[in-house]
Structures are given as structure tokens and as C-alpha cells.
Design brief:
There is one protein chain. This protein is α+β, with helices and mostly antiparallel strands. The chain has a single domain, classed as Orthogonal Bundle (Hypothetical protein af1432). It is 54% helix and 10% strand. The chain contains eleven helices and four strands, in the order ααβααααααββαβαα. Strands 1-4-2-3 form a four-stranded antiparallel sheet. β2 and β3 form a beta hairpin. The two termini are 30 Å apart.
Length: 205
């Protein structure tokens, strides 16, 4: 599985050691060149307690697998959560866990199941908002990735970027910005019908 770079330790270093109070990490585009999105999803659940349930949910609800694939395309397996885990792995685990709870509570009708899955999948939007992504293009100019505007790897390839810089935003995102990004995230991951299920049946989890 692709190594995850945690930014927490770097952030904790004093500015006189890191050279900058804002932590950063570099991701080589070559790390993403051989694996497909399907490979990333398989690796994210392989050997986990929720592997079987994830496969079952995706088989019965293809739109949820599509939403999960879209998330993988936007953040890749390298994006770290605040505790250093792969954000993709953590988001899938949360989505499947909430779906399992709904089933155990006999709330497994399609609207509720789809809604809680999407709620879990987008639960850690603050971990997306806290990172700023940039890279130097083929002309030597800096390009900045806009959250969920386009998948990360194609964006880098389009600009001829071979190394992506992931940096903790300073100052961090406000609550209003996180809420706005969540709406943007849902719109880019889920289809309209599933978004309706989220709003109607799982707006609060």
C-alpha cells in the first residue's frame, strides 16, 4: 500500500527547525502512475474487518462505489487525515461502519442506507480543507489545485507537474469554509438522487 505522509509531526516542529511554521510534504506523481482507482479501493479495504461489507455494499449499490471511486480520484491514497492515516481508508471505514449500524438497527431501506454511507464518506471534509495542494508546472510556474475542481492526478498531468506539494493551510479553514466545502464535496461525489437521500434520511448522520 502507498506510504502515507503524516503532516502532524512536521507541524509540531518549531519554526527554527522546519524553516516554516506550516508543515508540508511532497508526493511524487510517479507514485500514482501504476495503480488504477479500482486498485486504490481494493487496497483501502484489504484485510480490514469491513472488507466483506464494503464489497457487498458496492455490489448492491453501484452508485456508492462510484462516489467512493470519485473520492479516491480527488484525494488519492496519499492524503493524510489528522491522525496520520490514509484519509481514503478512514473515510471508507466510516461510511461502511455507519451503513452496518443502519442495517443492525433495521434501518436498511435504500434511502437511509445510501444516506448514512455518504454521510460517513464525507465526514472528514475538514481533513481535506486543511491541506493546500500546489505544484510547479512544465513552465516553472506554480499551479494551485482547487478542492474538488478536478481529480488530483489528471490535474498534475495536465500541467506537467511531477511533484505535488501538500501543505497545511495557515491559518486553517474556518467552520463556514468547511461547511461550504462539504456541500461542494457531496455535489462532486454523489449523483443527485443519492444526494437527495443524504439530505432527507441522514442529514445529521
Amino acid at each position: 500500500m502507498t506510504q502515507i505522509v503524516s503532516l502532524a509531526a512536521a507541524r509540531a516542529r518549531p519554526p527554527n527547525q522546519s524553516g516554516d511554521p506550516t508543515a508540508f510534504a511532497y508526493w511524487s506523481l510517479a507514485d500514482f502512475s501504476t495503480d488504477s482507482t479500482e486498485d486504490w479501493l481494493s487496497a483501502a479495504i484489504a484485510g480490514t474487518p469491513h472488507e466483506g461489507m464494503a464489497i457487498s455494499i458496492w455490489a448492491h449499490q453501484p452508485t456508492l462505489k462510484k462516489a467512493t471511486s470519485r473520492l479516491a480520484e480527488y484525494i488519492t491514497p496519499r492524503w493524510p487525515s489528522q491522525d496520520g492515516q490514509s484519509l481514503l481508508c478512514k473515510s471508507i471505514a466510516e461510511a461502511v461502519s455507519r451503513s452496518t449500524t443502519a442495517i443492525n438497527n433495521r434501518e436498511a431501506f435504500i434511502g437511509r442506507l445510501v444516506g448514512v454511507y455518504l454521510y460517513g464518506l464525507t465526514q472528514y471534509v475538514a481533513d481535506v480543507a486543511r491541506l493546500s495542494i500546489s505544484g510547479v508546472d512544465r513552465n516553472g510556474d506554480q499551479q494551485r489545485w482547487q478542492h474538488f475542481a478536478e481529480p488530483l492526478k489528471p490535474w498534475a498531468e495536465k500541467h506537467g507537474i511531477d511533484t505535488i506539494c501538500a501543505q497545511l493551510s495557515h491559518p486553517g479553514p474556518t467552520e463556514v469554509q468547511v461547511v461550504g466545502l462539504h456541500a461542494h464535496m457531496v455535489a462532486h461525489l454523489a449523483d443527485p438522487i443519492d444526494t437527495g437521500y443524504l439530505i432527507k434520511h441522514a442529514s445529521k448522520g
